[in-house]
Each structure stands twice: as structure tokens, then as C-alpha cells.
Amino acid sequence: MGNVTRVKMTSWMCRDRSNGTSVDVAVFAAKLRQPSLKSDAGEQVPLRRSGIPPWDERPKLRRHNEDVHLTVLDGLPADHEAAVRVWHAANVARLLPPSIDRVARIWEKLAESQACLVIGHLDADRDVVAMALAEPGRAERGAGAVIPDYGHVSMVFVHPDVWGRGVGRQLLQGLHERASERGWSRTTLWTRASNARARRLYEGQGYRRSGHETTLGSGDPILQLEHQAS
């Protein structure tokens, strides 16, 4: 798994050997669900005091149709937790709450040495509201050798508080710029056939159906879309 070690004990431990940090995924998943944590003394500490504010305690933008300006940055290890929070919030909003095993896999993917992570925040607020991840494209649907000039977009997620505000479009544009810098002239991604919002976003950024389709374990059909750099 690249630079990541995962050990199954009473909980999932994900360790990034490149910087020596580790994450107890079960504890992190609990933080996503609970309004407070226990201190060393056993008292309940609100997450805002623990330095890990949950999304429902963060200021929400008023819902309207005006686009907002997104600042897209290269994601660093220090941004991984915020990126996972965005991914988690978007999945919950789509009524697809992830399992602890799935959370562990996302931590692993973010820590892989060749991962291309970008994050986005609004100009007036440093909270991360969007994240996207690309990685070198591989043959045999990701199981084979790396294909030159080809990148695969494995994650594009926007926090539901800013859905419909132009955030996904700006995020993808920033990711494509990084892909071009890596020499990836072609990128692909998979999306659920039923996810009309995501398909509109991708098609608006030049993605077209590649002709490859398959189904998830749940039976939901997914489509592969392809983008050629101009």
C-alpha cells in the first residue's frame, strides 16, 4: 500500500511511513459522529475545544444560487483530516454513510506517495470545503502497470453546504492543472449512473463516456468518463 501500513487490532491503525504519523480510524470515525470527546481526565470536551470542530458547528453559508470563489491548493499531510471530513459529509448527505473499513481505505489513499490531492477553501474562510484526488492511471482497471500520460481521478467531493455554488467546477479545474503538470494528458473517473449532479459537473468540464460500464457490489451501475487535455 505504498507508504501506508494498516494493522487490524481492536481498531484500524493507519500509519504513513513517510512522516511517521498514524491515525486510529475508529477514533476518527467516532469524532465524525459525536458532538464531544473525553479528555484524559474523563470529562466530556466539546469538539470546538478539542481543536476538531464538527461540520455542524461551523458557520454555514446562506443557501442561494450565486457562485463562490474557491482557492485550490495542493493538499499536504496536515490537510488529510479535513479532506476526509469533506468526503464523509458528502457521502452522508447522499445517504451513503461509509463504514469504518471504508474510512480506513480513504486515509490510505491520501497517504500514498503518488497521490495528487487538492483541497479548496473559500476566500473568507480557511475551512476546507472541497477535496479531489487523482493517481497514476493503471492498466487492467487499476490493477496493472502504470500507463504513461494517464491519470485516474478517484475522488471529487464537495461539502453539501456549498453544493450548487460552482465549487466542484473550480476544484476540477485546479486538479486538471496539477494533472497537466504531471504529464497526464488523459484522465478518467467512475461515477454512479444515477448521480445526475456529478454527471452534469463532469460533462461540463469536458468529460465524455468512454464506453466502459460496470456495477458496484450494491448493484448500482457506474460509468467511466474520460477527459482529454486540450
Unreliable stretches, pLDDT < 50, 5 or more residues? 1-11, 34-59
Class derived from helix and strand content: alpha+beta
Distance between the termini: 33 Å
User: Strand percentage, roughly?
Assistant: 25-35%
CATH superfamily: Gcn5-related N-acetyltransferase (GNAT)
Question: How many beta-strand segments?
Answer: 12
Shape category: globular
By DSSP (H or I, 4+ residues per run), the number of helices equals 6
Could you please describe the fold and organization of this structure?
This protein is α+β, with helices and mostly antiparallel strands. It has a single domain, classed as Gcn5-related N-acetyltransferase (GNAT) (Aminopeptidase). The protein has helices at residues 25-33, 47-50, 80-93, 100-111, 167-181, 196-204, and strands spanning 4-8, 12-16, 21-24, 36-38, 44-46, 70-74, 116-122, 128-138, 146-158, 186-192, 208-215, 221-228. It has a 7-stranded mixed β-sheet with strand order 6-7-8-9-10-12-11, with helices on both faces. The longest helix is centred in the last third of the chain and has 15 residues, at 167-181. The two termini are 33 Å apart.
